[in-house]
Amino acid sequence: MNNLLMEVENEIAVVTINRPKSLNALNSETLAELNTCLAEIEGRTDIKVVILTGSGSKSFVAGADISEMVNATPAEGRAMGLLAREAFGRLENMPQVTIAAVNGFALGGGCEISMACDIRVAAENAKFAQPECGLGILPGFGGTQRLARLVGKGRAKEMIFTCDMIDAQDAYRIGLANHVVPQEELLDYCKAMAGRIMKNAPYAVSLAKQVINSGADMDLDNGLKLEANIFGLSFSTEDKKEGMTAFLEKRKEKHFIGK
Ligand code: CAA
User: Fold this and answer.
1) CA 108 to CA 92: how far, in whole Å?
2) Which atom of ligand 1 is nearest to the CA of 84?
3) Which residues pair with 128 in a beta bridge?
């Protein structure tokens, strides 16, 4: 991979977008590599949490690559959007939990990729924006849809129409960032959160993720029916036996096997 780094340790994969010269802007090659890398991770049971970040201390991802888009035709623009749709859709729906460690600029496609992750942790220097309308285009990697779902239509429209950059604290205030932490603590903070997640039954966490994602696009009644069905399914697992028995035996140590 030319534009990505991946390290796996203690069942956590840290995937780093690594194009520091362009502040980790996403070109088509990077999107394709990300898609391949996530497809590989999806099939690995030894990875429970994925942390996505950008290289350096200035930028998470400064957006789609403007130098690639400047001469692109409508068909090429659409192809780029579809490539991002596939990679970001994979990120959003993969069985592992995904955390965006936002270590600086999260602009355009950068804000959009962070929103395809389950959880966003922002460094104090993080800045979020959807600057596309200032470039004569509109958000094309999910911003019009995921931002509105995450922070509400009113705030999403304001960010997209004004192109205003908001800082980490404002992102936290509107629910775009789950936490704001000092830059030097960012990765450790995300890894510690991953550790707390991994103490719980991995299959149950994965099912909960699927139900939250699928339910978000349903009416409440159908979402609750889906929840009841998958709740029932979780009773068939070894981990349910283990989790409940450990509680009744007043045993802190639990041995989940992911089945
Ligand atoms: N695409 C391509 N190159 C980019 C880039 C991008 N999105 N963002 C930054 N770069 C490049 C710059 O061109 C510059 O390259 P050179 O050194 O070769 O000149 C290098 O990264 C460093 O950037 P700056 O000199 O501009 O750094 P700065 O500190 O002055 O400014 C910044 C930082 C505010 C992030 C500024 O670079 C910027 O505004 N970048 C563009 C942000 C943007 O508009 N993103 C949205 C893209 S459109 C999109 O994402 C569509 C979509 O929905 C998917």
Assistant:
1) 17
2) 54
3) 106, 166
Nearest to 83 by CA among 33, 12, 41: 33
Q: So what's the pLDDT on residue 86?
A: 98
Q: For residues 252 and 59, what is the distance between their CA atoms, to the nearest angstrom?
A: 40
Q: Look up 124 and say whether it is catalytic.
A: no
Distance from the CA of 90 to the center of ligand 1, in angstroms? 25
pLDDT band with cut points at 50, 70 and 90 for residue 124 = very high
Can you say whether residue 136 is alpha, beta or left, with left for phi > 0 and alpha for psi between -120 and 50 degrees? left
Q: How many Å apart are CA 54 and CA 152, to the nearest integer?
A: 27
Ligand 1-lining residues (CB < 6 angstroms): 22-23, 25, 62-67, 105, 107-109, 112, 131-132, 135, 139-141, 143
pTM of the model: 0.97
**Which helix (H) or strand (E) segment is 86 a member of?**
helix 74-93
In what helix (H) or strand (E) does residue 4 lie, and over which residues does it extend? strand 4-9
Average pLDDT for the chain = 97
Q: Collect all residues with Cβ–Cβ distance below 8 Å to 228 and sequence separation of at least 6.
A: none
pLDDT in tens, 16-74: 999 999 999 999 999 999 999 999 999 999 999 999 999 999 999 999 999 999 999 99
Residue keyed to tokens 């994965």: 206
